[in-house]
Amino acid sequence: MSERPRRTADQLRSRWWFDNPDHAGTTALCLERYMNYGITLEELSSGKPIIGIAQSGSDLTPCNRHHIQLVERVKAGIRAAGGVPFEFPLHPIHENVRRPTAALDRNLAYLGLVEVLHGYPLDGVLLTTGCDKTTPACLMAAATADIPAIVLSGGPMLNGWRGKERVGSGTIVWELRKRLATGEIDYPEFLARIADSAPSVGHCNTMGTASTMNSMAEALGMSLPGSAMIPAPYKERPMVAYETGARIVEMVWEDLRPSDILTREAFENAIVVCSALGGSSNAPVHINAIARHAGIELTNDDWQRLGHAIPLLANVMPAGAYLGEEFFRAGGVPAVVHELLTAGRLHGDALTVNGQTLRANCFGRETQDDDVIRRYADPLVESAGFLNLKGNLFDSALMKTSVISHDFRRRYLSRPEDPEAFEGKVAVFDGSEDYHARIDDPALDIDENTILVMRGAGPVGHPGGAEVVNMQPPEALIKRGIDSLPCLGDGRQSGTSGSPSILNASPEAATGGGLALLETGDRIRIDLKRGEANLLIDDEELAARRARLEASGGYPYRDHQTPWQEIQRSMVEPLDRGMTLAPATKYRAIAWDLPRD
Ligand code: FES
Ligand code: MG
C-alpha cells in the first residue's frame, strides 16, 4: 500500500475537467463531447475514477494487435471495479518493420503518452505492452507523469516448431542467415523456415527484448505477479487482462503511484532478474532510461556490480533451449524471483502494483520444471550478467556473457597465458550499408583473429541506434567453419541474437567517441577480467588522429530524413545513459501539476 491516505471522490484528478463549477463553460464542453457517444453524465461526474488505456495494438504493430480484443476484458474489469475506461492509441512501434529503427520511436511514443497523461482527465492508466519498445516507452511516461499506472503485457506467441525442433523468433533468423550464406538453403526456404517461428498472435517467444522488458515490468513491480509471460492465446491472458483492469481502479483510490514502486531497490531487482533470465542487451538501455525518468541514476556500472555474478536460471533462447510456453509453465518470472529471493539476491520488500511486496507475491512459487527454470545452485551458466567494458575507445560498452558459447570461449578466451583476454586486428565498417558492401572484400584480409567493428550506428549516427553490431563473418570464413567472429560497435544488437558482441559503445563515433579514430588493421586488446578494451597505439598517434578528425569536422553521418530525426539527434543522450531526451529527464510527477484551463 502507498503511504498516502486513500483518495476521496472529490480528490480525483478528473474532477478538474468534469466537475468544476468555477469553470462551468469548459466543464460543459468536456462533458458534452464524451456524452455524444453515449457516456452518461453520471459516469463522468459522480466521482468514478477515469482510467486511460494506452492501446499499443494496431495493424502496424502485429505483436500487440490482440490487445484490441483483450481490451474488452480490461474494460469489463475496470467497470466491475467502479471505474470508467477511456481507450486511446499509443504511437505505433513495431520492431521488425519500422525503418530506420523502432528505437527511434521509443522517445516519440514516450512524449506523446506524457502529453496525454498530463492533458486529459485521467485518474490512472493501464499500459498495454508487448513488442520491444512499447514497454519502455510506456514505463518511461508513467514515471514522468506519476499517476497510478499498471502494465498489461500481451504475452509471447506460442512456441514455433519445425518437426520436433523448437523455432524461436528472431534467433532462427541469425542461425539461418549463415546457412543461406553457405548455400545450404535457398531464399524461399529461408523465408518459410523463419515463418515457423511465428505460429500465433503475441510478441517474440524467445527471451528477446519483448519478453525481457515485459518480465522487467513484472520484476519492477509494475504488473500483476505471474502475468508477464502468459502466452498470448492462453485463457489466462484475458483473465489477467480483467484482473489488471480491476486493479488499476483500486490503485487510484489507494493513490499507489509509480514513484512508490519504481525505487532504487526495484531497479536493482530488475538488474538481477534480467541477468538470471539471460535478458536482452537492450534491457540496460531501457531500464536506465526508465530509472532516469523516475529520478534515479542507474548506470552500466550498476549492471556489472549487481548483475554480472548472477547465474543464468532461465533456459530460454537465445541463451538456452526452450521458449515462452515452457517458461510460463515452469512458473515464469515468479519462479525466477523465488530462486533469487532464496539466494538473498533481491530486495524482497519492494512494493508492487497489487499492494504487496515482491516477496509476498513470489516466495514459495517454486519452479515446476527445473530444467526450464534452474535452481540457483544448479544454473546453466555461472556469472551470466553483463560486463561493462571501458578503455581508450569508449567509456562504456556492454558484453552479454550468458551467450558466450563454448566454441567462442575455446577460440578466444582459453589461451593459458591470458585466459580472459584476446587481441586482434580490426576491420572497421561505417554503418550497415558499408558492412554489406565490403564484408566479402578480400582486401580486408579478415581471418579468425579479426575483430569486426561497426561504428556510425549509435543513436545519432543511425537515428535511434541500429541493431547491427552482431556481424556475420565473410562467406569464405563461414564455409571454413568459422561462423562467428568477435564484434564491437557503437550500435545495438537484437535481443534475440546469441552473439557475445561488445555493443552500445558510448560515446558513439558520431558524437566524438573513440571508435571514430580506428583504422582497419589497428590492433585491439580485450580483457574481460580487467573489464577493458583498448586500442594498442601510443597516445601521441591517438591524439594526432583526433586532431585530424576534428579538423575535418568530426565523424560524418547521413543527413536527417524527417523532422523527428533532427529533433531527437539534437538532444538524445548516449546509450549508456538510456538514450533519453536530455531535457525530458528533469520532469517529475507532472500529472499533479494540473494543466491550465
Ligand atoms: Fe515485436 Fe519481436 S518483433 S516482439
Ligand atoms: Mg530489435
TrEMBL record:
It comes from Salinicola lusitanus. One of its GO terms (molecular function) is lyase activity. Residues 48-360 form the Dihydroxy-acid/6-phosphogluconate dehydratase N-terminal domain. Residues 371-578 form the Dihydroxy-acid/6-phosphogluconate dehydratase C-terminal domain. Belongs to the IlvD/Edd family. It comes from the Bacteria. Keywords: Iron, Iron-sulfur, Lyase, Metal-binding. Gene3D superfamilies: IlvD/EDD C-terminal domain-like. Its EC number is 4.2.1.-. This is IlvD/Edd family dehydratase. InterPro entries: Dihydro-acid_dehy_C, DiOHA_6PGluconate_deHydtase_CS, ILV_EDD_C, ILV_EDD_N, IlvD/EDD_N, Sugar_Degrad_Dehydratases.
